[in-house]
Request: fold
Amino acid sequence: MPLLVTGTIGIDTVHTPSAKAEEVSGGSCAYFAAAAAFHHAPVRIVGAVGGDWPEDHASLLESIDGLCLDGLERRNESKTFAWGGRYFDNMNQRETLFTELGVLEEAPPKVPASYGDSRLIFLANSHPNVQLDLLNQFPNRELAVADTMDLWINIAREELLTLFKEIDGLIINDSEAEQITEITNPITAARAILEMGPAFVIVKKGEHGAVLVHRDGIAVVPAYPLDLDGVIDPTGAGDSFAGGFMGYIAASGRLDFAAMQAGMGWGTVTASFTLGSFGLDGLCTTTREDLEARMLDFRQIAQIS
Ligand code: AMP
Reply:
């Protein structure tokens, strides 16, 4: 099933308790696409970068098999989206140090005509108006899933609530679920979000795994167990989870609850490779064989089929 993603392609600066990485390749769209491409190809990207987009970031994205970059706009007069964050000691929580919207403040990128038959749409983290604009161009889609973040919940809540009425699924973390609903329990918060429009919500809980609350049932998946010294940089893990999940759905061609439950396992294992390095490096140095081997291991550990 043809899969399209829009979101940010960013320049990230990440501080962890033991290291700092400057101007690494990131962005919600980039992480999602690199993760989804393990499962399904091509992953069609719609995004924009500015004239300051580093050449090595371009080469890295171009080197990933299974991405279609026809919808990647290079705007020489503009600035690339840039984000900086700092992780706290447990590597589970972070604060945003800066967000430079750059191209996100301009017109949304155009969708190439060749993407017209896309059926699965993932709206990675971006301004909800950009997400809505893209969605409106795909009236024949079969599944639309979105992600969002504290910034948009704070500054574009109304637009976000409009988006919720249009999407089938939402993938967020526990603090975002609480921020949207003011409910601390993730299950109750997810059920409250179902009332706002989506048919399912996946709430990610970092090292404690994720829960799928669907109109047809509920499913949980643990995190892949990693020691703290194996967690170098959690940035993009959420986007990579979503990429593994949606990539699996696209490859299976099924949209039912059981497929989503299986997709949660693949999302978890795919994301675990992002945690081991800064930027996209963790995903870029992983092979499909590595992924399958870790999935076998995870099935044993989590006792899932
Ligand atoms: P995650 O760790 O999965 O939440 O994803 C972090 C990635 O999302 C980083 O690579 C950032 O460049 C990007 N990002 C951070 N803040 C935003 C935002 N407000 N909108 C879109 N993308 C963002």
Summary: Residues 8, 10, 12, 26-28, 83, 99, 125-126, 149, 151, 235-239 surround adenosine monophosphate (CB under 6 Å). The CA atoms of residues 64 and 72 lie 14 Å apart. The first strand starts at residue 3 and ends at 6. The radius of gyration is 17 Å.
